[in-house]
Design a protein that fits this description.
The structure is a single chain. With 847 residues, the chain is α/β, with parallel strands linked by helices. The protein has 25 helices and 41 strands. Helix 7 (311-328) crosses helix 21 and helix 12 packs parallel to helix 13 (437-443). The protein is globular. Residues 695-714, 823-847 are annotated as: Disordered.
Length: 847
C-alpha cells in the first residue's frame, strides 16, 4: 500500500487501484477489502463479525462507512468488511462523516437492545470489544425501555465451551471458524428473525479439537470456557508469551497467570506458524504442573522404600550409584521426547562426559535402525531456510501425507493443509488404511455450492505403506511431480520396514521435498542436540574423527576422550539392561507404556542395578527408581523447542520463584558430583554452547536404502492391526483436565463391512482384539476400509495397545466377537479378566 500526495501525479501500480479514504489518496491491491485498506492506513473502523482469517460475512453491520463511486454517493452507508476497493472510490469513515458515525451508533444501539447487563460478572469484561466500542461509538443513553430478552444460561455446547445466548450479537465468527477453518460444522445459527441464536444439533455435539478458538475470537462473552469461567478478570492477570509444549507444531501461545498459578492459555499471533489458532490440547492442558501428585522434592530408595531427601543427599546418592554402574557394565540414557533443546543437549553431554557412553536415545516410542539412518541423513541440520515450512505446505501444488495423521499428530499442520485445500491451490493426498476425519476434511471441502474434492486417500493395508508408495496411482504420482510438491512423513513410518527408504526414493524420483513431522515437541530438538546413539550435537556423526575432535575442543576434553563407536538404540539399551549387560539407567520422564514393548522396559528397570529418574509426576519408572529427581515443567523454566520445520521457538519463564529446576541444571549438578563439568547450569548457558558448536559441515550418513515391505497376510480369524495415537488420549500432560477429556473421540475398533461379516459382529457390539500377550475389548464401528484390517487407538481409555497386546501398527492380531459378560470395554494382559471403568490418566512424563 502506498500513500500518494494529491500534488504528485503518478501512474497507479500494476494490480492496484487508487481511492480516497478520509481525504487521503491511497493505492491498494485489487480485491482488497475496504476495512483492510483503512486499518493499514491507521484508521480503525469498529467491527464485530470481521476477522482477517475468516471469509467476509457482513453480519454485524457495525463497520458502516459512506461510499461514493464515480462522483455519485451510494444511497446508504455500506459495510466496509464486505466491499472491495475500486478505482476512484471515495470513502468517509466515522472520523469524517456524520452519516457514517450516526449509522454506527444506530447499529450499536440495536445490538445492545437485548444485551444483558452482565459486565460485572462476564468473563469478557475488561477485554470485550463490545464493551469498548459501546463506549467509543455508542450513544450515552438507550431509547429502549422494554424488558430485555432472557434465556437459560449457560448452555453447554461441549464439555469445555459454554454459551450465554442473550450476549450473542450473531456475528457468526464461531460458525464460520467451525466450518471454514476447523471443518467441524457442529455449531450453527438456529431459528430465524428475532429468535435467531447460536446452537448445536441434538444428535451432533460440538466435538472438535479446535473449539477453544471460538471462545477467543468471540467479540462478546457469549462463548466462555468451562474451566476458566468466573475464575479471574483480565486486569488481575499477568500475561507471558510462550510456546506450546504438547506437539511439534511449535505454536505461539499467551499464558495468563496470577499468584503463581496459570489461569488460562490463549493462542499467540504468529503468521508464519500457527497464525492465530491453537488446538484444544495446547489451550486447556496445562494443569498437570499443579497436579496433587507432582514430585517437588528429591527421593531416594532406602530399605526398598522411596523417602524424601535433600538435594545434596539425593545428588550424592545418584552420583555414587551411577559412578559404580558406569565403571561396572555401563549406563544407558533415555531422555524421552518432552525436552527443550537445552535439556536434550544436557542429556547428550551428560551421557558422553559423565557416563562416557553413546548409549542414549530419546525416541520413547516405536523406532527402528532405518529411522535412525533417516534422521542422520535427511532430518538433522534442516532449517526453515533449507527445508519445508508451513508456507511451503500452503503454497504447494500437492502434499502427500504418509504414515501421518495430521489432525491427531500435528493439529496446526492439519489446519494449514485444510486452508491450502480450501483455497483451491493444493491437492492433499494420504497414504493410510482409512478415511479418518482429518483425511476427509483435507480432501473434501464443502463450499456454498456443495462439496469439492481436493485430494484423495490412497488406501493401503497397515504395514503396506511402502509398497503403496512405490505403486502410487498415476494422478497422485503426476501431482507430486509438480514444482514445490511436498512429501510429509510421520514418526509412525518407523514401524513399517522400508517405508522411510521408499519416501526418499519417491522424493528423488519425483522431485518432491520431504518433511518429517514427529508427534512430541522435543523430538526435533533432541536430534539436533545429539540425543541419539549415532549423533553428537550439531549433526556430527559419532564415528567421524574430525567431528569428535570439534566437540572435544569445545567441551575442553582431551583428544580421544569421547567414545568412538556408535551406541545402542532404545530397544537395545532396554534389552541389555534386562539381560544384565548394562548396570544402570537414567530416564527423563519416560512412560514404559509409550514404548513398543512395555514388558521389556519393566524387566529392564527391575534388572538394572541402579536407576535414576528425572520426572515431574510418579510413573511406572518411579516404582523402580533408586533416586528420583524432580524437574520443572515448561511454565517454570525458560528455553526453546525446535518445531518440525527446525524453527527455534524460544520462551521465557512464566511462573518464577518456585524453586523447580530444569533438567539441564539438575544434570549439571549431578555431573559435578561425578567429577565432571557440563557447564549447563542454565538453559542460556546450554544454548550458548550448542550455538558455539554450530552445525557439522562434513560428510553426512548415506540415505537408508531398505527394500519396501509388503503388508502381512492374515490367516483365519486374524486381521492386520492399524493404530496411531489420538490427540486427546491417556497422555500424562492431559491430567486434571476433565472438560478437555470430554471432547476426546470415541474409543472404538473400526473394521470394514466384509470383516465385520466374517467375524459375525455388527456396529456397536464389542470386539476382542487379541495377541499372545493379552487382549483389548472395544465397541465396533463399521467403515469403508480394507478388508481383514482392524483399527484401534494406540492409547485411549482402556485401549492401550502396547501394554495390552505388545504389538503395533502392521502386526497380526486375532479377532473375535464378545457376548454376554465374557469381556468388557478394556484390556486384559495374558488373556485374564479385563479392567472395567473409565480410564485414568497415565502417570508418566511424555504426552
Amino acid at each position: 500500500m502506498t500513500l500518494a500526495p494529491e500534488s504528485e501525479a503518478r501512474p497507479v501500480p500494476e494490480g492496484h487501484v487508487r481511492l480516497t479514504i478520509d481525504g487521503i489518496e491511497v493505492d491498494a491491491p485489487k480485491g482488497e477489502l475496504l476495512i483492510r485498506t483503512a486499518e493499514r492506513m491507521g484508521i480503525t473502523i469498529p467491527r464485530f463479525c470481521d476477522h482477517p482469517l475468516l471469509d467476509p460475512a457482513g453480519a454485524c453491520r457495525q463497520c458502516l462507512v459512506e461510499v461514493e463511486m464515480n462522483g455519485r454517493p451510494m444511497p446508504k452507508p455500506q459495510a466496509s468488511c464486505t466491499m472491495t476497493v475500486a478505482d476512484g472510490m471515495v470513502v468517509k469513515t466515522q472520523n469524517s462523516s456524520p452519516v457514517a458515525d450516526k449509522a454506527q451508533q444506530g447499529v450499536m444501539e440495536l445490538l445492545l437492545i437485548n444485551h444483558p447487563l452482565d459486565c460485572p460478572i462476564c468473563d469478557k469484561g475488561g477485554e470485550c470489544p463490545l464493551q469498548n466500542q459501546a463506549l467509543k461509538h455508542g450513544r450515552a443513553e438507550s431509547r429502549f425501555h422494554d424488558t430485555k430478552r432472557a434465556f437459560a444460561k449457560p448452555v453447554p455446547i461441549s464439555s469445555q465451551v459454554l454459551l450465554d445466548r442473550e450476549r450473542c450479537v450473531l456475528c457468526q465468527r464461531c460458525t464460520r471458524f467451525s466450518k471454514q477453518i476447523a471443518g467441524d460444522p457442529f455449531i450453527e445459527l438456529l431459528e430465524r428473525g428475532a429468535l435467531q441464536q447460536i446452537g448445536i444439533g441434538e444428535q451432533q455435539p460440538f466435538q472438535s479439537y479446535f473449539s477453544g478458538n471460538t471462545i477467543q475470537i468471540c467479540p462478546v462473552g457469549a462463548l466462555t470456557s468451562a474451566a476458566y469461567r468466573f475464575r479471574s478478570r483480565p486486569f488481575d492477570l499477568v500475561s507471558t508469551p510462550g510456546q506450546c509444549e504438547h506437539c511439534a507444531s511449535g505454536c505461539a501461545t499467551r499464558t495468563d497467570w496470577r499468584r503463581g498459578k496459570v489461569m488460562r492459555r490463549l493462542a499467540g499471533d504468529d503468521p508464519e506458524v500457527n497464525e492465530e489458532w491453537i488446538c484444544d490440547k495446547g489451550r486447556f492442558a496445562f494443569r498437570y504442573a499443579n497436579a496433587a501428585d507432582r514430585i517437588t522434592r528429591p527421593q531416594i530408595r532406602v530399605d526398598g522404600e522411596l523417602r524424601e531427601a535433600s538435594w545434596t543427599e539425593a545428588l550424592q546418592a545418584a552420583a555414587k550409584g551411577l559412578t559404580a554402574a558406569r565403571d561396572a557394565r555401563g549406563v544407558g540414557v533415555l531422555p524421552g521426547g518432552r525436552l527443550t533443546v537445552e535439556d536434550a543437549y544436557a542429556y547428550s553431554k551428560f551421557a558422553r562426559v559423565a557416563l562416557r557412553t553413546n548409549d542414549i536415545d530419546h525416541r520413547a516410542r516405536p523406532h527402528s535402525a532405518e529411522e535412525l539412518r533417516f534422521l542422520e541423513s535427511a532430518v538433522v541440520g534442516v532449517t526453515p531456510e533449507t527445508g519445508v515450512t508451513y508456507g511451503d505446505l500452503e503454497s504447494a501444488p500437492a502434499v502427500l501425507c504418509v504414515a501421518f495423521e495430521p489432525e491427531e499428530e500435528s493439529p496446526i499442520v492439519f489446519l494449514r493443509l485444510r486452508k491450502a485445500a480450501r483455497q483451491g491451490t493444493t491437492q492433499v493426498f494420504h497414504v493410510a488404511p482409512r478415511t479418518s476425519p482429518g483425511v476427509e476434511k483435507t480432501t473434501v471441502i464443502t463450499h456454498a455450492g456443495g462439496p469439492v474434492r481436493t485430494g484423495s486417500l490412497v488406501e493401503c493395508v497397515p504395514g503396506g505403506e511402502a509398497a503403496a508408495l512405490r505403486e502410487l496411482p498415476s494422478e497422485v504420482d503426476e501431482a507430486i511431480r509438480q514444482q514445490g510438491a511436498v512429501l510429509v512423513v510421520g514418526e509412525r513410518a518407523a514401524e513399517v520396514p522400508g517405508l522411510l527408504s521408499e519416501v526418499l526414493r519417491t522424493a528423488q524420483r519425483t522431485g518432491a521435498q520431504v518433511a518429517w513431522i514427529p508427534r512430541r515437541a522435543g523430538e526435533r530438538g533432541a536430534v539436533e542436540a545429539g540425543a541419539l546413539p549415532t549423533l553428537l550435537p550439531g549433526a556430527r556423526p559419532v564415528v567421524d574423527d574430525h567431528a569428535r575432535s570439534d566437540v572435544e575442543r569445545t567441551w575442553g576434553m582431551a583428544p580421544g576422550s569421547l567414545p568412538a563407536s556408535a551406541g545402542r538404540d532404545l530397544t537395545e539399551i532396554l534389552t541389555a539392561a534386562a539381560s544384565g549387560e548394562l548396570s544402570g539407567l537414567v530416564l527423563g520422564g519416560v512412560d514404559p507404556d509409550d514404548l513398543p514393548d512395555p514388558a521389556l522396559a519393566r524387566k529392564a528397570l527391575e534388572s538394572a542395578d541402579f536407576v535414576v529418574s528425572l520426572e515431574l509426576r510418579p510413573s511406572a519408572v518411579t516404582e523402580r527408581a533408586d533416586v528420583v529427581l524432580p524437574i520443572a515443567p515448561s511454565a517454570e523454566k525458560n528455553g526453546s523447542y525446535l518445531n518440525w520445520e527446525g524453527r527455534r521457538r524460544e520462551f521465557a519463564t512464566t511462573i518464577d520463584g518456585t524453586g523447580a529446576l530444569p533438567d539441564c541444571r539438575v544434570l549439571d549438578t549431578l555431573a559435578v558430583e561425578m567429577d565432571a563439568d557440563l557447564f549447563t547450569q542454565s538453559p542460556a548457558a546450554a544454548a550458548a554452547e550448542l550455538d558455539r558448536l554450530g552445525t557439522h559441515t562434513g560428510a553426512r550418513t548415506p540415505f537408508p536404502d531398505e527394500a519396501a515391505a509388503h503388508a502381512p497376510r492374515p490367516g483365519p480369524g486374524q486381521a492386520v492391526l492399524g493404530t496411531w495415537r489420538q490427540l486427546l488420549d491417556n497422555g500424562s500432560l492431559q491430567a486434571d483436565e476433565p472438560n478437555l477429556a470430554g471432547t476426546a473421540r470415541n474409543r472404538v475398533a473400526i473394521v470394514s463391512p466384509e470383516t465385520a461379516k466374517r467375524v459375525e459382529i455388527s456396529s456397536g457390539q464389542r470386539l476382542e482384539i487379541r495377541t499372545e500377550r493379552g487382549r483389548i475389548v472395544l465397541p465396533v464401528e463399521i467403515a469403508d476400509m480394507p478388508d481383514d484390517v482392524v483399527w484401534v487407538p494406540t492409547d485411549s481409555g482402556q485401549a492401550r495397545v502396547h501394554q495390552a497386546l505388545g504389538a503395533g501398527h502392521g502386526a497380526l492380531v486375532d479377532l473375535a466377537p464378545v457376548t454376554g459378560d465374557a469381556g468388557s470395554n478394556g484390556y486384559s494382559p495374558n488373556g485374564r479378566t479385563s479392567v472395567n471403568g473409565n480410564s485414568a490418566h497415565h502417570r508418566g512424563g511424555n504426552a
